[in-house]
């Protein structure tokens, strides 16, 4: 005998299928849903469907958007000569928060990772090469994460872009602003020394 | 400028409105939804609505059910002379897991908690008194949590049931089976001593 009614069990299973949510949390969330007003639950269900149905990848930069061309690609004030390559839409948000970068983006939607069976063809790399091949781009900034997979992906792409007349650069490594030297790891310290600049 | 498309922001907000899910986790969940097949997202949305619309409280024991009378209350093999009072539907599941208890349940849907503005009238206490008043019940087992609020609620209810010819009992306190005396807290040890039984 199943202990919760079937429709409740199904909802618990749905929550438990989300990443990082175990059986116990899924139960807690399902009970929370039952305690909500029906109109709120309806709004939640609609938000799920609407997001899924209305969000596409931008035709140019592959970032998530609800228009054919994303707001950044369609902004004439942005510098279309510079492309910043990131692995994830969240990285665009992080970079935009700085309000400094004026170029465009290219979202790979992942990194090359043999361990997780992600090959270059699974990423939006062909689309990047096609953008660069058009000839307008002058610089491609690699801004994948500073870990092994991010690094490998950045190198792979910069090698692919060699034939084109384009500068490829990498985000600087170093001590995070506001952090404490004492707690910096060795690899970061070495990179910070290597990358030292004159005042 | 909002950085994610509006429909995505709405979905992130919906996830963030769930208990225990912060802004970062909500983003992760929303991105996960975008990566799922549309049919799966549809199934999730339907599960939300269906659970909300089809789950009621059992007319008798107030446990969650999708029928007017829950499977336990409508099972003729259960002993209707004993009612076990719990604060939460999850506690019924925990007790049923033991496959030992043969009586019925009564779910309070909370505990008396002045701190959280939960008064006795907010709980299913009147419904319990009405069941006992019918005269068929011989024993009411208080199985609220062994904390201050659970204890207060159990005492409050047992006082309410005094006028009726019914035995009220409390789950035994003591050392959990399989645990280590060394790590038991003082209060539990004292209760275990108090409640000691002859072999």
Task: Give the gist of this structure.
The structure is a homodimer of 199-residue chains. Chain A has 199 residues and is of the alpha/beta class.
Can you give a write-up of this model?
The structure is a homodimer of 199-residue chains. Chain A has 199 residues and is α/β, with parallel strands linked by helices. Chain A is 41% helix and 13% strand. Chain A has seven helices and six strands; from the N terminus they run H-H-H-E-E-E-H-E-H-E-H-E-H. Chain A has helices at 6-16, 23-35, 38-54, 89-97, 125-133, 148-161, 186-194, and strands spanning 56-57, 64-65, 79-86, 103-107, 139-142, 167-170. A four-stranded parallel β-sheet of chain A has the order 4-3-5-6. In chain A, strands 1-2 form a two-stranded antiparallel ribbon. In chain A, strand 1 (56-57) and strand 2 form a beta hairpin. The first copy, chain A, is globular and about 65 Å long.
* Main sheet properties of chain A: 4 strands, parallel
Distance between the termini of chain A: 73 Å
- Count of helical regions of chain A: 7
Low-confidence stretches of chain A: none
Major sheet: arrangement of strands of chain A: 4-3-5-6
- Based on DSSP secondary structure assignment, what is the total number of beta strands of chain A? 6
Mean of all residue-level pLDDT scores of chain A: 90
Largest interface: A-B, 51 and 51 residues
Multimer state = homodimer
Category by helix and strand content of chain A:
alpha/beta
Helix residue percentage of chain A: 40-55%
Shape of chain A: globular
Estimated share of beta-strand residues of chain A:
5-15%
Taking all Cα atoms into account, the compactness measure Rg of chain A is: 22 Å
């Amino acid at each position: 005998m199943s202990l919760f009614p079937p429709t409740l069990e199904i909802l618990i299973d749905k929550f438990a299928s989300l990443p990082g949510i175990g059986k116990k949390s899924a139960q807690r969330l399902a009970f929370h849903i039952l305690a909500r007003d029906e109109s709120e639950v309806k709004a939640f269900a609609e938000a799920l469907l609407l997001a899924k149905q209305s969000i596409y990848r931008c035709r140019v930069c592959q970032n998530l958007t609800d228009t054919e061309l994303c707001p950044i690609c369609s902004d004439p004030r942005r510098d279309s000569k510079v492309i910043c390559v990131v692995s994830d839409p969240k990285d665009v948000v992080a970079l935009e928060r700085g309000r400094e970068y004026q170029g465009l983006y290219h979202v790979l939607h992942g990194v090359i990772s043999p361990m997780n069976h992600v090959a270059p063809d699974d990423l939006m790399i062909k689309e990047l090469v096609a953008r660069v091949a058009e000839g307008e781009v002058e610089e491609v900034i690699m801004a994948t994460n500073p870990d092994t997979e991010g690094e490998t992906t950045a190198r792979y792409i910069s090698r692919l872009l060699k034939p084109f007349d384009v500068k490829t650069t990498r985000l600087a490594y170093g001590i995070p602003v506001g952090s404490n030297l004492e707690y910096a790891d060795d690899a970061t310290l070495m990179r910070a020394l290597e990358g030292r600049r004159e005042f």
